[in-house]
Structure formats: C-alpha cells, structure tokens
Amino acid sequence: MANPGYGKRSVPDQSVSAVGAFAHLPGREAAIAGFIDRLPDGSDISVKALAKVLDYGQCALRTVLNRLQRAGHLRRGREHLIGADGARWVTRTWFSRAARDNDWWAAFVSGNALNGTAPAEAQSPPQEVVAAPPRLPAPSRAYSVLVSVGRTNPSVSLSAADCAALESLAAEWFARGATEGDILRTLTDGLPVPVHHPAGLIRARLTSKLPPTPGPAACPPLRIMECAKCRAPGRPETLLDGECGACRGEPVPVCRPAALPPDQVRARAAEARAAASHPPATTRLSAC
C-alpha cells in the first residue's frame, strides 16, 4: 500500500466484471492491467513498486503504463484536497477497468464523469459466436473484498459461506463511500492474537465501525492532469492520450512580438544616436 492519500484510485462507473475488459490489449499489457485492476485502492502502482512483485524491469513497466494510458485505462495528475491539517496537492494515478476516451477523462477532471465505456477503437472486433460452457456469475465487489481479507491477514481468513453471509454488510460500506483499502484496513489492523472466530470478529467490525451516511454532495475536487512523459500540467483537451503536444512530436508555436512600423524604428534609432553623441555631464567635486 502507498502512503495514505496516494496510490491507485479507481474511477467511478466501473463495470462489475473484468472478464474480457483487457482483451483488446497485447498479452503483456493485458496481464499487467489485470493485475493492477485486482489491487485495492491505495495500492502503490509506481514503476518501482510493480517491479518488485512482477517479472518485468522498470523500463518495461514504464512502457506498459504509458501504453495503458494511451489506451484509455490510466491517467496521472494531481488533486487538491482540503482536510483538517490544511489544503495540499496530492499526486493521483487514476485507473479505469474500461477504456475511456479523451472526452470522458476531460469530464472526469471537471468532476462530471460521463456514462459509457470504451471508445470505438478500443472495443474488441466482432468475432464468430462460439458456444461456451456456462460460467458462474462474477463475484460482487463486496464479496471480493471479503475474500481479500484473508489474503491480507491469514488469521482472519473467511470461508465461502462466511463471505456470502457478510456480503450485504460489506456492500453497505461501499454504498457509504468507503473504498477497498478502507475496508481492508478496518478489518485487518489491530487484530487480537489469536483470532478464535474470524467470521464473528469481521461481522462485529463491519457493524460497529460502519461509516456514517454520506451528507449532501460536496463540490467536485479540483483536479489537474499531467503529461505522462514530461509531467507538465495541462488542460485535458491538450493532453491527448495523456501526453502533451511537445511529447507527441507536434511543433510548438513560438510567440514573437509584432514588428514596429518604420517610422517608430527611425525615431528610436535617432534617440539612440542622440544619447550616444551627448553623454551625460559629470559633476566635478572641488577639494575642500
């Protein structure tokens, strides 16, 4: 996990199932995108952190993250937060399971995310329909976070029946604005040793530590996108696919001052010649 306030941030309006979400990506990019997608919010997904747990070097991972950004799954930027200790800018890395186009990301930065999923070029091409064996329904977000509790701390591992029984309690946490990281920290920090009844302890914490009901909708946070290569801040419409025009190889316009009219040029030249031919007089001090 990254420091509090940093790390991965999932965008709103996520699809429930990740099956086939990254099928349009090459194999390496799809595998790493699937790994990042399974991580809870707040996880450190920097190049150095990923290189410690994946079989890829930092250069390869940096290339993959840039490609995920161009594909519409990732954006980097900063968000202005106001808390009890004051206001500060926090670096953000936003991740989307569905590929989003530039218009969607621009709306997200302004605090008004659009409905919809992938742009046309990111959708998988139509394929011949082949009969497949029936699949079990994908687990809900609440069920998945309860499964992750045992992976985070084995002393509170839950059975499938326990996860199903506690699923509605975890879903209420998400309904009140909690993230996967919030729930995992609440359920795995400060545990007694030993834990005699994991399901009972998890139920008690989900009930007693339930966050309050969200109040009136607050103003959307102030966000700024950054170029993936040079990290220069810019407006979303200028950072196409997360890169500025200079990093995309576009010529940078040079602003030059307008030329002076000929009469003003002659007048200023005359002033300069007059100043050079009549230097200012120096005052000689007489000896006392």
How does the SSE layout of this entry go?
Blueprint: E1 8-10, H1 27-38, H2 47-53, H3 58-71, E2 74-83, E3 86-95, H4 102-109, H5 141-152, H6 160-175, H7 180-188, H8 198-208, E4 222-226, E5 233-234, H9 262-277
Helix pairs in contact: 1-3, 2-3, 5-6, 5-7, 6-8
Report on this structure.
The chain is built from nine helices and five strands; from the N terminus they run E-H-H-H-E-E-H-H-H-H-H-E-E-H. The relative contact order is 0.12. It is 36% helix and 10% strand. The chain has 288 residues and is α+β, with helices and mostly antiparallel strands. Helix 1 (27-38) crosses helix 3 (58-71) and helix 2 packs across helix 3 (58-71). A hairpin with a 6-residue loop joins strand 4 and strand 5 (233-234).
| Helical content (DSSP H or I, runs of 4+) | 25-40%
Strand order of the largest sheet: 1-3-2-4-5
Largest sheet: 5 strands, mixed
Structure annotation, total helices? 9
Shape annotation: elongated
Please indicate the percent range of residues in DSSP E strands (runs of 2 or more). 5-15%
Number of strands: 5
The number of domains is: 2
Tell me the distance between the termini.
81 Å
Order of helices and strands: EHHHEEHHHHHEEH
Radius of gyration: 29 Å
**Mean residue pLDDT:** 80
Poorly predicted regions:
115-126
Look at the helices and sheets and give the structural class.
alpha+beta
